[in-house]
Each structure stands twice: as structure tokens, then as C-alpha cells.
Amino acid sequence: MLPEDFVSLFEKVELEELPPADEYYIDDSPLHQILKLFDEEDFERQKRFLEQKQKKIIRNTGGIEIPNTKYAQNMIHDYIARYMTNFGKQNLYKILDEGEIYRLYVREQLKKRNMPALLEYLPVVESEYKATAKSRSGARGMWQFMENSMSPFLKKNEWFDERLDPWKSTDAALSKLQDNFRVFKDWPLAIAAYNCGAGAMKRALAKSKIKTFWYLAEHKMIPEESIHYVPKLLAITEISEHGDEYKVTLPVLNESLHSTPFDYVTTRTEFSLERLASEIRLDYEVLQKLNTALLKEKTPPFEYKLRLPQNMKNSTEDAIIEIGK
Q1: From start to end of the chain, where are the E strands?
Q2: Which of 96, 218, 224, 227 fits a 20 to 30 Å CA distance from 283?
Q3: What average pLDDT does the structure give for the chain?
């Protein structure tokens, strides 16, 4: 007999017309939830494994201090066990591997801004490092900005949506997180506020006698999603920083690569990316991936900064002249 929640999810997969994978955040997918249900036995086994070894008290991970309370430690360890399952390990490896070039940029920017290292893993929670991810609620991009939360960081019109640009949206997300930290003076609160909104966090803190994330979470004074948001991030960071300890193999970030080996050209007229790629003898898919913010796979009929592989600026400028003839 199949569990009721399994049957419910399976019916959704059968009946629901799912959008394209690159426009759909996979954690929202009924199919993805079914795969996680199959993993429940493995999850319980990993929890028992951690308990038999006596849980490590995690005091600091990714630059964030963690209280030695039963609630905080259990929340983090539950997510560690989740990512130690076969499904969890494979999924985390895939996410971190495929997001390498974006992770390099995020890591560089965190160092420049003197921000906690664990924020490199926030896009794992937000979008699985998918540049064009779309949630059911309408959040877009690697950092899952809602349209009403873009300003003043990002722009959108009928031609482009900067939420879909992983480099611009990274700059925007880190600025927003810094703004949150200036308000709340505490990184767990700032990170949770990124999820639930600064207004909701202020209202929760105003009602709370203790002004910490862990108190708000334990007493359910913030939304359920935000309660799990920070422990999930801390668990991913802990595993990524101590893979050997948890017997989890993850891809090593190749820091010898530069995160932004790009050139840029300024375009002023409308033409297709496919035509340009052909003219400069560049794989069309590469040009698309460098310019994911463009909604029509065309340059707009006004000034726009087009991203290119390094050392292709001159040849592209010549090609644009040829296209315009």
C-alpha cells in the first residue's frame, strides 16, 4: 500500500503540466518530492549513524556562531543527515559541480565585502545554483528575487530581466544581505530576513523578548520556511567544509580559474544572439548562457551591455558592424 502523501504527489505529476526544467525550481516539483520520499529510510539510517557517533557540537560553521542548544543542534543535524543520504549526496555534488563558475564569483565577492563564507551556499538553498530558476511564487534567478523586491538593485523590462543574470543578481543579493545585517546586527537574522522579508523580521523581533533567530524559530514567530532556511544553509556549509568527517565527497572548487573571464560590448540595435554567434563562430549556447537576462534571445533596440568570452570584443564589434549593413 502506497503512503497517502506519495499518492497525492504522484497524482500531481500525472495531472500537472510542468513548465520547462530550466524555468522551474526543482525543489517545487512533485517529482522531486517523490524522490525524497523514497529516501526516507536512508535518512533515518543516517540519523541513527550520527546519534551512535555522538553528535558533533557545531559551534561555528562558515563564519556563523551556533548556540549549543538542543533545538539548534538538532535542526542542523537533521539536515546534515538528509544530505548524507545517497540522494542528498548525489544532489549536492551535482549542484555544487554545475554551479562552479557562479560559486567562484560569489566566493570572490564575499571576500571583497568581508561577508561570511557560508553565503556561498545560499544559492544552493534558493535555486540549486540555477541561473534561470523560477519558483511557483514567481521568484526568479539564482538568488530568487521577487519582482517587488528587485528595486533598487536590479532592472526588468520587456527585453531583459536582470534577476536572471547570475553575476548581477549576485551583486544585488549580497548588497541586500549587507543591508539586512546593518539593520539586524546579526547574520542568522539577516539571512532569515532575506527569506521572509525585513518587515516580517522586524515585526517578529518587536514581539519577542529574546532577539535571536533561534528563539524566533523555536517559538514559531517567523514563517515555517524561514525557520528551516537557516539550519538548512548551516548544514550544507558544515558538510561542504568537513566532507571527510561526514564521509561525503564533494567537488573541489578550482580557484585557479578566474570567475569572470569576460569581455563586454555595447550594442544599440536589435539583432538575434543566434546570428551574432554564427558571425563570431561561437557556440550559440555559450552566448545564451552568458546573457541569460535577455528575454527574447535578441539584443534590445537601445544601449545594452552584452557579455562575451574573453578576447572576443574586437571580433564581435566587427561582426556587429557587418550585421548592421
Answers
A1: 60-61, 64-65, 262-267, 304-309
A2: 96
A3: 87
In 3D space, the residue among 274, 282, 265, 263 whose CA is nearest the CA of residue 318 turns out to be 265
Instruction: Report CA torsion sign: 229, 234, 235, 239.
Output: positive
Given the residues 126, 128, 162, 238, select the one marked as catalytic.
Answer: 126
Residue closest to 101 by CA, chosen among 248, 273, 256, 282: 256
- For residues 260, 161, 303, 311, the Cα torsion angle rounded to the nearest 10 degrees is 20
- Spatial separation of the C-alpha atoms in residues 271 and 297, rounded to whole Å: 9
Is 120 annotated as catalytic? no
The predicted-structure confidence for 214-262, as pLDDT tens digits, reads as follows 999 999 999 999 999 999 999 999 999 998 888 888 998 876 666 667 9
**Predicted model pTM:** 0.85
- Reduced to 3 states (helix: H, G, I; strand: E, B; else coil), residue 305 is strand
The whole-angstrom separation of Cα 276 and Cα 284 is: 8
Summarize pLDDT for 292-324 with one digit per residue, the tens: 999 999 999 999 999 999 999 999 999 999 998
First-to-last alpha carbon distance for the chain, in angstroms, is: 68
Residue with cell 538538532: 74
